[in-house]
Write the structure tokens for this entry.
Amino acid sequence: MVVLIPSYRRTNTLPHVVQSVLNADVSNIEDRILILIVNNYYPNQMIVDNIVGELNLGSRFTCKVIHRKETMIALESWFEALFSIAYEDEVVFLLGDDDILLPWGLKNRYHQIKNTQSDMLISDFYKNLVFFQSSSKYYFDSSVLGRSSDNVKTPIEWDYQIDKHPESSFISNHCYRNTTSLRRGYKAAMGWGYKQSYAPQEFSTGNCPLYMPYAIKLAGGRVFSMRQKNVIRGRNFEETLYQEYADGGNTSFYALLIYDTFFNTLSHQGLAEFKEISKRYKNVFICHVISIAFNANISFEVFFKAIRETGISLRALFSKYIFCNIFDILREIPFFKSYGLKRYVRQGRLKSTSGFIKFISKL
């Protein structure tokens, strides 16, 4: 078993993330348990090494760090490491460097992906965990958390109907087996992103996690999903003040790229299977299109090239979704952008992150 944790410029959450893995229940797992940290920002080499050096791995865990001397496209960095380190048919988890693993998050998924002999298993997650003060403090409503026995769900076969299954764009709810179908699926999913040459590759390939179940199925693989919540999705308060995602991307622009992928006859032959997802992401794009104007990483030239590729009319951008976009304009105003989160600080609702990691280990 390999737990791959990608790391870029953010390091202050990394010790808490790794500790949540070390706290996980790994009983009845006879395979090796390797924590693989892939540092894609070489100046952080010493910081990451110091974090690893302070870990108490115990007898069941080992840890390996890969330092990229030159920053790679994120998805390429992750999967190159995965395919070079993982054994054939080995179970592999992805866990973001600001996401917290729940105690049952390894064991239950490990046995389910083995039992179903699937190439990919998607599960559910909790959200709204926010780190403050260099991740020493956090805010999260812990009352929503269940226990392992409450979260056991039976996997179902993934069948393209997105409302039946958990969100697949979030990397930390992904579990794989290193199989031929996985590798073929990854190659196909990345290929869909590479075709969007009008967009920065970091963004066009950034949708690969969402594409993976489609690509693996098309490659003849097996994909299952279950509604079990195994991870708490986190974010850093300081980062939210100037960017939506760690890679500098934007929800609306990502939705446009996804729509292009599943609408484009150059990428797919049987478009009927993708009708639902293409329609949904077209609506997401139009509903929040104004937010792209506030993103310094997406130029107007790139934006209009993408519009031309998809054939979306400018008239459609000023449709019934105008009220969503007005809300997005308000949300970009600094006061409103941080008001809700700063309220937790003013009300004294922040708690120790270290204490939180200990708390969830006992669930």
In short: The chain has 15 helices and eleven strands. The chain has two domains: 2-242+349-361, 251-332. Residues 40 and 77 are 7 Å apart (CA to CA). The radius of gyration is 20 Å.
